[in-house]
Write a structure and sequence with these properties.
7 helices, elongated, three-stranded antiparallel sheet, five-stranded mixed sheet, Rossmann fold, binds zinc ion, alpha/beta
Length: 197
């Protein structure tokens, strides 16, 4: 069971993030077409949910996380930035801004495991998979040509990969190798399971 508190208390919808990469991504399942009216929620994960933040980013969502952040600061930041607070700490939900619905929030049950947490959040908000963000920092990924990546990519990778991506946030170079494909499979399974909930 989950509790989504005060879903209607966000004053103004957040604008959709300006994705620069929309079409060629394997992460996006065929039936996960994004409705034009869909507004992506943005999240702030509590100090225990850093793994979930990384996977939400891989699923294409803006998910903030700060190691060791104080609960009061976390609640304040979520409120100031219009993010939905995700937490497994019951005490956070007793804080006034959360209890009174000024900060949207979702209690993520403990002991779900990482894939269970991801499924839970995708299911709670009926979220489709979006073009992935950088799992490290949450930045949007810009597509690069092979030539643009040539100076940095390992030679063996250049031999077999055609498309590369640059994180707008941290500058990291990424490509769709076996690690990427494994992540995409986990995401697709999580999305499918969330739909069956
Ligand atoms: Zn990054």
């Amino acid at each position: 069971m989950f509790v989504e508190r005060a879903a209607g208390h966000v004053n103004a919808p957040e604008p959709a993030s300006p994705f620069s990469v929309l079409s060629p991504m394997a992460f996006r399942s065929a039936d996960a077409c994004i409705q034009s009216s869909f507004v992506e929620p943005r999240f702030f994960c509590d100090a225990m949910l850093g793994g979930l933040a990384r996977w939400l980013r891989a699923a294409g969502y803006d998910a903030a996380f700060e190691q060791g952040i104080d609960d009061a600061v976390l609640v304040a930041r979520a409120g100031e930035t219009g993010r939905i607070l995700l937490s497994s700490d019951g005490g956070i939900f007793e804080r006034t801004p959360v209890r009174e619905g000024h900060v949207r929030s979702l209690f993520v049950p403990r002991a779900l495991g990482l894939s269970g947490e991801l499924r839970f959040v995708l299911g709670a908000f009926s979220l489709p998979l979006l073009p992935p963000r950088c799992m490290t920092c949450g930045g949007a990924l810009l597509e690069l040509t092979k030539d643009e990546a040539r100076a940095e990519a390992p030679p063996k990778t250049l031999d077999r990969i055609e498309t590369f991506y640059r994180c707008e946030g941290c500058g990291k170079l990424l490509w769709r190798g076996s690690h990427w494909e494994r992540i995409a499979r986990v995401l697709a399974e999580a999305e499918a399971a969330a739909r069956r909930r």
